[in-house]
Amino acid sequence: MLLFAKKLGTASSGLQKAYSYATAAAATALPHPLTNVKPRYTTVFINNEWHKGCDGNTLPIINPATEEKIGDVVLGNKADVDKAVAAARAAFKMGSAWRRIDASSRGTLVNRLADLMERDKVYLTSLETLNAGKPYTQVCSFDMTLSIKILRYYAGWCDKIHGKTIPIDGDYLCVTRREPVGVCGLIIPWNFPILMLAFKLAPALAAGNTIVLKPSEKTPLTALYIAQLCAEAGFPAGVVNVVPGDGETTGAALVAHSDVNKITFTGSTEVGHLIQKSLGESNLKRLTLELGGKSPNIVLADADLEKAVDVSHQALFFNMGQCCTAGSRTFVQSKIYDEFVERSIEKANSRIIGDPFDLTTEHGPQIDDIQYKQVLRYIDIGKSEGAKMVTGGGRYGKKGFYIQPTVFKDVQDDMTIAKEEIFGPVMQILKFDTMEEVCERANKTQYGLAASIFTKDIDKALTLVKNIQSGTVWVNCYNVLDAAAPFGGYKMSGLGRELGDR
Fold it and tell me: 23, 82, 119, 136: which is deepest, by most CB within 10 A?
């Protein structure tokens, strides 16, 4: 378990800083977006070259804010994956330029990639906003900033990966040597395309591995652009390869490939099951999974109520609720429950919804029509099962996949919206009386990715931290992420950890 605790009275940190950029005052400090941004790369990237794809099939990329087509991207197939893996395998071969490069020089290349992303920050941010519908302010101040920090953090690790000398019995010398795994298949999701690329690409490169990356078929544009930056940075041909495509064909081919040594995947628990099954039937690759969550956000009666309401609001509605760590089960102690609900309604109603390129916008569209309809279905289920919807619940505007920020009260543990991951802007507020009760209820889930606790009592905080079954527990803060801090879940939320020295 990883614990983050925020000192009372200190300045905001982590994601709380990013939130402030959504206000008009802070937004004036950001560089203006490229509202007419166009994608530059839409094909397969292998051996530092662009290829049309083996069968010529493409898939349309849709702007979720307008429902208009941005363009077409190559739909990679098994043959494309085979070529990319062969290139990565050749780049990893003994005696290759990548295998012979000094560790410190690897760090120089990773830092150079960070420099190029910094140089092209406005373009990348604008392209992400166009493709994913994420507010420009969020992408610029949080996603891009943290991604670059992650690259620089792992650049520093390149020449600090070393083994041990072990004093075993007898006249023997025993040493360990930490070696790269080999060819790594990186499969990234659509909700944080640039950030999840950094989560996976940076440590893999730092350790000396070679890469075949599959971005989400919904948001491939920034990953393809960063591939070109890798070539510009000077990475040898075959070290980084990107094959756009869907999960059923492209992703499945990568997961099942016998020349791939590791898979790292961020996405749904359902697909995580399929990946683990495929690895068992192929070559038993190493595996890291970061999957779903239904994170408990616990507010005790002694908490700073204003702060608890504000951070709980952001914990759920950040990125339109499309966040694996979303604080989607908000447990509030009965003494302050009614006031917390009323303040939460006010926060939801005041959230600024609109054009993601507008620097005042806090809330953009859902990623596509499928997710839009799924969230509305969960809202209908919540109402039908007896939860009381106190604000929101419908479409916003006439164009784009926008959903009003929605709040439910009187939610019970056995309701569908309290058990299943909605992945949308739907806040569920549950009432509890005692710490023992809320601890048991918070753990009554198949997930264990994250949790948070709001209280002024350190004894209460540490008691709950010790008993909550989550990979990360935040105290008086939420979604504080750092390149140096390991991240991952318990139970059905995944396997292994990312970030830090893991």
Answer: 136
Enter the pTM of the model: 0.94
Single-letter residue type at 484:
A
Give the residue from 426, 326, 413, 330 showing the smallest Cα distance to 372. Answer: 426
Question: Tell me: the pLDDT tens digits for 298-343?
Answer: 999 999 999 999 999 999 999 999 999 999 999 999 999 999 999 9
Q: Is 5 helix (H, G, I), strand (E, B) or coil?
A: strand
Provide the token pair at 426.
């739907």
- Predicted confidence (pLDDT) per residue in 32-58, tens digit: 999 999 999 999 999 999 999 999 999
User: Is residue 221 a contact partner of residue 131, using CB atoms and an 8 Å limit?
Assistant: yes
Angle CA(265)–CA(269)–CA(271) in degrees, nearest 5?
60
Tell me how far apart the alpha carbons of residues 64 and 66 are, in angstroms, rounded to a whole number: 6
Active site residues: 290, 324
Contacts of 294 (CB under 8 A, 6+ apart): 328, 329, 418, 419, 420, 421, 445, 446, 447
Return the bridge partners of 492, or none. none
Residues of the chain whose pLDDT is less than 70?
Answer: 1-28
Query: What integer pLDDT is reported at residue 9 of this predicted model?
Result: 44
DSSP 456: S
Which tokens sit at 383?
């109402």
CA-angle at 294, arms to 289 and 295, nearest 5°: 100
| Nearest residue to 273 (alpha-carbon basis) of 262, 284, 265, 282 | 265
Give CA–CA dist 163/182, Å, rounded. Answer: 18
